Every structure is written in C-alpha cells, then in structure tokens.
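#struct-help
A.M.: can someone run this one for me? Single chain, 272 residues.
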Amino acid sequence: MSDLKNVKMEGSKVPAEQIKNPEVISAIEKMQSDGTKENIDAMIDEVVKAKFILPARVTPTRQAKTQNGRTVMEQATQVQFRLLENANKEKFFGVFTDTDELYKWQDTQSSNKVVTDFDSLAQMVMDPNAGVLGFVINPFGKSVTFPKNMVISIKQQKDFMNSKANNIEPGTPIQLGEPKEYPIDLMAALINHFSTEPFVNAAYLRMMEQNGQKSYLIVVDFVGNMEETFDAISEVAQPFLDDEIQLSMMPYSMEFGRSAVNNVEPFYRKGN
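D.P.: on it. Structure tokens below:
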C-alpha cells in the first residue's frame, strides 16, 4: 500500500460503477494493433480526458492544527493505494477503465474505489513521497504503462497549452538567437533562485522575436507544478525586464523547447 493523506481526487463524486471508457479502450486497441505516432497521440488524448478507478483504502481521521496558539482538530482523509510491483521491485499505480477490469485484480471487489483523472494521477506520480515510477492502465488486460518521465512530459505540455505563460501565437514566424547583450544580472538572479529549487534540473536562455516583440526565452527542465515554477521565475525576472524585452518561458518537455535549445549549454544545471 502507498499511504497518501488529504488526496484531492477530481471526479471522485462520480460512482465507480458509472465509469466506462469505451473510447480509451478502443484507442488502446488501435494503438496496440498499429503503433503509429497518430494512433499513440490519439490514445494519449483519450487518456488525458478520461476518468479512471483506483483501488484504495479510505480512512477518515482527525489531525491537529495550531491556530493563534490554539489547537484545532480537523477532519482529514487517509488514502492508501494498492500498488503494482514489477520484477525489479519498481512500484506503479494500477488504474482501471471500468469495474470489470478492476475485478481482474484479486481481492479488489471489497476495496474502496477512488475515481480519479490524469491530472490527479500525474500529481501523485510526481510526489516524491509516493515512491512510484508511473501508472499502468488495465494491468490485467490490454495494458498500457505510462512511465514517470512520460507522465511529467504530458502533464507539462497540457498545462503549458492552458497557461498564461504560453504567449506564442500559432502560425506566426519565430526567430531564435543569442542575446546581443548577455543579461548578466538577470542570469545571476535566476541562478541564485534555481539553486533553492530542488525540482529544477536545468535552464536555458534564448532570445526570441515574434511580431516584432523581443523576449528572453527561458526553457526549464523541471518536475512539479508548472504554474508555481513559472510564477516564481517571473517574479525573480521582473525587475530586469522592460517594454523592449519581455519574458517567455517553456518546459523542456515541449518539442519546441527542446529544439530551441538544441546544442545550447544551459546557464544553470543542478549540482554545478
């Protein structure tokens, strides 16, 4: 069992017995019979939209919280998830498209059934306290494994497309290059900031121009919450920006981000 407390499960009010995923099952079968990039992408799109079932033990508990010198007892929830373990002792969440698939796992009929979605799964997979390396859909049927690095990549790309940090206009030509004048003070401030951020692995700098607007493009290799990571970078960078040059950010997991910094050395790398 993996023990996580106060877990927020989107879609958890939907009864597990109502969870059916014919589109996900069809997309998995199509991808497994013909593993083209188009079919893989279509399968991922269905997974990101779907709700799944997780077998768990849900226990109401109370926890003490101190407020203004007074101790207040609050209601909390302790959730323990059953984990899959492979031959290398690596642990994964097992998630299911419906109860028929769930009951293929021994002794799950009496388990609590937590309804979850991709965003919640990604949050748990990225939690270092969970100790899991990804999740497996229908592990006792036509299964698909989503390793941790793939989960992170999909989550970051999904978040970026919905983020205010995404200021790149589709279809508009973009010019990339090196800054004519290296922003030493900005880079020093960001390096100092990243040294306090354990989930940032590396960061790269490019100069980007679109529709006549120049901006520093910071491509960040990180794990965790994108909004929090980018908001913190923006706050650090703001004193060094002006109307002439603004700030753009992108996860390294984005294909455009990786290509933008191809053969470019990072200005920050964790441990250096």
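A.M.: thanks! Confidence is low (pLDDT under 50) at residues 1-11.
D.P.: also worth noting: The two ends are 37 Å apart (CA to CA).
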